[in-house]
Amino acid sequence: MAKPEKIRVSSAALHTLVESMFVKLGACAADAKTIAEVLVWANLRGVDSHGISRIPRYVELFESGEAKVRPNVVVAQPRASIVTIDADGAPGPVAMSRAVREAIATARNAGIAWAAVRGTVHTGAIGYYTSQVAAAGMAGIGIVAGVPNMAYTGARGAAVATSPLSIAVPSSSYGEVVLDMATAVIALGRIAQLRASGTPLPEGAALTAKGEPTTDPNLAEIPLPMAGAKGAGLSLMIELLTGVLVGNPVVSRFHSGSEDGKRHRQNGTIIAIDVEAFMPLAEFKSSVDATLGTLKGLSRAVESAPILFPGERGARVYREREAGGIPIAVGVWQKLGKDAAKLGVPLPDALPPAA
Fold first, then answer.
1. Average pLDDT, integer, range 191-210
2. Beta carbons within 8 Å of 304's beta carbon, 6+ residues apart
3. CA dist., res. 235 & res. 207, Å (int)
4. Of the candidates 26, 11, 85, 43, which has an alpha carbon nearest to the alpha carbon of residue 268?
5. 74-79 vs 82-86, strand pairing mode
6. Which of 52, 155, 161, 183 is the most exposed place for a label (fewest CB within 10 A)?
7. pLDDT tens digit string along 46-61?
8. What are the residues facing 267 on neighbouring strands?
């Protein structure tokens, strides 16, 4: 009998595992819990490329000194609606979750808040943060820029980052409506998944290290921007509104030729908009429901293909995985097991195979 390609683990067990690993790595209990919540949320939503498979990368960043397991995060509020967070190399989930809390609290008073994060590392699934803003009854916008890994129209090689963008709003009947997208045709994490499974990439998604188009996941190194120059331009503007705005530019330093410029780092922004500054929250949610209901009631281009709103598929996967366990590739689980063993953390038992 062939071995299963994936095993299933309950979200609670996975959360405990991740939290325990980061505590062993030296994180405080609160930070370890936050990291676990963000990573497991990604797996629950089906964004496995940004879930627990990222743990080895965080370990590498701690070991290289590019990230700090016990950062000295400094928060300042230079204006009524602006918050700055010097992350001091904090893991992305820690820094960005702090930005969410500060943005929500500030928007309660000012109506809107711009929380800028300076000098963090891999932030994880950005939709997690905007969904938290939406759950607080606000509209949330999140952007992140980092080290160049994506092509830019007219340039050779990696020029800008696959900068993600997320927008989320609350509703009454549909939960949080969450758009979570990268400015690339395909994310590097997804390329890694296709490489592991031996699945070809779609045409027009990536380039080789030499800048040649490829569908071979083993040769793909540089994602292409979505919609060509539009995606490239959007990524550049996100860099200007994150890194450049807080005095921590990434793109210019990366291409300067200096060794420091190649170090991994990211900058991000969370914007929170208090709906109550415009109208009663219940009225807004009702109107969102009406808009989504109208969209889903339109004639379908293909009768068998449903009309989905942003985040609907992820919410469905979340419910399924919360109830039936999170599927994890055997290779990812084995790698995680080795890292956990080094830390003296036991792996939880897998759930029995589905009937």
1. 90
2. none
3. 18
4. 85
5. antiparallel
6. 155
7. 999 899 999 999 999 9
8. 145
Assigned token pair, 99: 């930005």
The proportion of the chain whose per-residue pLDDT surpasses 70, expressed as a percent, equals 99
Per-residue tokens: 211:
């800048």
Note the pLDDT tens digit of each residue in 292-318.
999 999 999 999 999 999 999 999 999
Q: What number of other Cβ atoms are within 10 A of residue 304's Cβ?
A: 5
Residues 239, 251 contacting (CB under 8 angstroms): yes
Cα angle at 310 between 304 and 313, to 5 degrees? 55
What domains are there in the chain, each with its CATH number?
1-68+326-355 (1.10.1530.10), 71-184+225-310 (3.30.1370.60)
Distances (CA, A) of 69 to 56, 129, 265, 299: 14, 20, 15, 52
- pLDDT grade for 1, boundaries at 50, 70 and 90: very low
Calculate Rg over the CA atoms of the chain: 20
Exposure class string for 149-169: b at 16+ Cβ within 10 A, else e: bbbbeeeeebbbbbbbbbbbb
